[in-house]
Amino acid sequence: MFYREAGDFKTSYRADSQTFPIRLDRMGYFAALAVAYGVVPFVIDDYWANAVFVPFLIYAIAAIGLNILVGYAGQVSLGTGGFMAVGAYAVYKLMTAFPEVPIFLHVILAGGITACVGVLFGLPSLRIKGFYLAVATLAAQFFLVWLFNKVPWFYNYSASGQITAPDRTMFGIFITGAQTSAAAKYLFCLVILTLVALMARNLTRGTVGRKWMAIRDMDIAAEIIGVNPLSAKVTAFAVSSFFIGIAGALLFSVYLGAAEVGEAFGINKSFLVLFMVIIGGLGSIFGSFAGAAFLVLLPVFLKNVLVGGLGWPTDVAAHLELMIVGALIVVFLIVEPHGLAQIWRIAKEKLRLWPFPH
Amino acid sequence: MLEQLTYASEAALNGLMAGVMYSLVALGFVLIYKSSGVFNYAQGVMALFAALTLVGIQNGQVPFAHLINAVTGGHLESFGWQVPAVLAILLTIGVMVGMAIAIEKLVLKHLVNQAPIILFMATIGLAYFLEGFGDVMWGADIKTLDVGLPQGINETVESLTGAWFGYGFFIDNLDIVAAVVSVALVAALTVFSQYSKQGRALRAVADDHQAALSVGISLRFIWILVWSIAGFVALVAGIMWGSKSGVQFSLSLIALKALPVLMLGGFTSIPGAIVGGLIIGMGEKLFEFFIGPMIGGATENWFAYVLALIFLVFRPQGLFGERIIERV
């Protein structure tokens, strides 16, 4: 009753093949966009921006990127942290080398550079499959982190070995640096996330996406029906790394402001993004959003309840958080291996029939 | 030049010893992978948890002291007794067996017939859980583990090599003990899997789950058995690594060191785990010795992975792995 596809007639090819073919879906997404652009920027303050909104937006970009690789193309990667580091260091080098170019371009370029690195590390996926590939991507993770730690050129020979984002503006408004307002950070990330999500959505339902899914379901069979595994796998790695690079660039320049590679982009970051994808739902763009929101909100919530509400010491709370996150992963895999996105699908199914299920 | 060579061979020898330690962790992976098809990412955390439990029992720590203190506002610390090492090890084995049963009942049982990658991710979740659980149970501070293993430089080796090459090699006694223990462990496991009834059942399960079920082998019992053995191997690895560098979070990272060993040796082969460990241990020490100074050092973090990656491109199933046959 509340969710229905009936009565939504298409009279042209254009209408039939639009991004969101069901009117109710479309209206829902427009409403969400209207709130995100029209309401949130005016009420957001520094706490909400830094604790919830900006990390959510950035991790959603990373999760979409990883979901393309793991969920759509079936190539498990544990190198997300390393690729995010590539994006961060690329944007840092670009920002310091060309201060007059708008930051938006730098972020996109950083994504492009990450895509090249991603393709390089993705090439072995043609020979190596499954677990072996998952472990092989760890090579990217460790090698890249080591590289950014040991080669001083990457951090401009700074004494601390850290990279610090300089102040950069767009249209005269600060986007990076200490003077940035919460709304500016939020809007900048939101614009990029919107573009990324639209691009991912359209890629995954088009030819490229179908090739990815064919490779995921069974690569040999896909090859036999004429899908080129080289191009499918390489494009999956390229697109995925492009998004992940953008997320890394934003994480460093807009959110953190200063970063040390081992700490900000270590293996834990790889797992965090992977968990977002699993909990959200493999092979679902909506799932990437849901997973990112869940894992960004959970620590904030637990911290407020355990430390703020019950007054427990922070270290006990941190350990409990690890336990809860780990247990949740296992529970999700047992109860709903397709994640929050599947729960959402089931809910829609139910709403379609409610209140007369027979 | 000759001096360089003796240094290099010392590095190689130390690498071999480190490699034995990697093999020890890799062994746990292979056991579980062979018999249940689960790639157990939590193996390293299991080693950490086993070592933590051992230290905790030895020192008579109160489990969950921090949590209890946080809830009740008390300040419990320890029972105030010391447990002898042998008894503590036996108790820890008991805890690991209990853990194996719990994992089977709570996790694996519900994930039968899922894709291998789902099981893999479940063990990542398990690793997070165990890491938090170990910290909540025993506290996160760095602990020293002492079960009476010899430590420090081995003087026999030093004086012998000193007499031969004019330069005494530095070999830690602990490394020698670890090497001996690993060899014994591998021998014991091989005998167990070749000649005992359970061992034969275990190999049957590894070959084909359904066929094993059809001839009356209890899959659940085998899984509990295998996870218990893996827990025992984790305990041995935890004792060795814990005596060497203290019981702390970084102990769980040895799992990450064992992964390239597995890739190199093949996921399904026990000898592969040993040979892979030796190659990687020696390779990374030599690489660090010859190439490391030129490119900034600390290459040990990634060398093993890159080596395994390059190797796999040419031989995707690893050195001793079973040939991967794919059918549509």
Description:
Chain B: InterPro entries: ABC_transp_permease, BCAA_transport_permease. The complex is a heterodimer of chains A (about 350) and B (about 325). The longest helix of chain A is centred in the last third of the chain and has 28 residues, at about 230-255. Chain A has about 350 residues and is mostly helical. Chain A has a domain at about 25-265. Chain A has helices spanning about 15, 25-40, 40-45, 45-70, 80-95, 105-120, 130-150, 180-205, 205-215, 220-225, 230-255, 260-265, 265-280, 285-310, 315-335, 340-355, and strands at about 165, 170, 175, 260. Chain B is mainly α. Chain B has one domain. In chain B, about 70% of the residues lie in helices and about 0% in strands. The model of chain B has no long low-confidence stretch (mean pLDDT about 80). Classes of the chains: A mainly alpha (about 350), B mainly alpha (about 325). The interface between A and B is large, with 49 and 54 residues.
What's this entry about, in short?
Chain B: InterPro entries: ABC_transp_permease (IPR001851), BCAA_transport_permease (IPR052157). The complex is a heterodimer of chains A (358) and B (328). Chain A has helices at residues 13-16, 23-38, 40-43, 46-72, 80-97, 103-122, 130-150, 182-204, 207-217, 219-224, 229-256, 261-264, 267-280, 285-309, 314-335, 339-353; strands spanning 163-164, 168-170, 173-176, 258-259.
